[in-house]
Amino acid sequence: MRSGLEAATLAMSAIGLLGRPSESEFVPRELDSDYVPGHGQPPARLSLEMTSPYFDKCYKHVEVWFNGEKRPADVQEYNQEAGYIYVRSRTRSGRFLKDVRGAYVLKRLEGVVEPRWAPQKSISEIVTNGMRPRENTDDTATISAAEAKRARKAAKLTRDAERRQQS
Which residue from 49, 55, 62, 63 is spatially nearest to 31, judged by alpha carbons? Predict the structure, then answer.
C-alpha cells in the first residue's frame, strides 16, 4: 500500500502535471509596450502571436506596407530587416485556412516591408463607428430582414415552379 504522498505523486505524473513550474516560479509575460503609437518608428520585427518573443501589444496600431502596397489585416508577423512577412492563407471562398490544431496556416512572402503607424481615428469616428445617420427615417419605407428573406424565398419558389412547368 502506498502512502498518500506517493499516490498523489504517481497520479500527478500520470496526467503530466509534474515537470511544470510551480505557481511561485511562474511569472506572467509583461504586456507593457515600449512603443508609443504615432511617435518614432514601429518595431522592425513584430508578431501577433503572444508566445513569440517579438510580440508587442502595439500591433493594433501598426499597418504593414509590402512592396509599396498596404496589406490588409492578414499579416501575422513581419521582419523589416530580413524583408519578409507571414500572412494567413485563404481558401477559395476567402476564409482563413486553419490546420488541425486550429492555428492559421501561414505563407511567407518576401519583398520590401515598411511598417507604419496607422492613422489615429478622431473621437467622432470612434463614437459613430464611421456610420452616417440614416436619412430615411420613415418606418413604412423600411422592411425588416425577415420580411426581405421571406420575399426572396417566395420569388425563388415561383421561379422554380415556372422552370418545372416549362420543362
Answer: 55
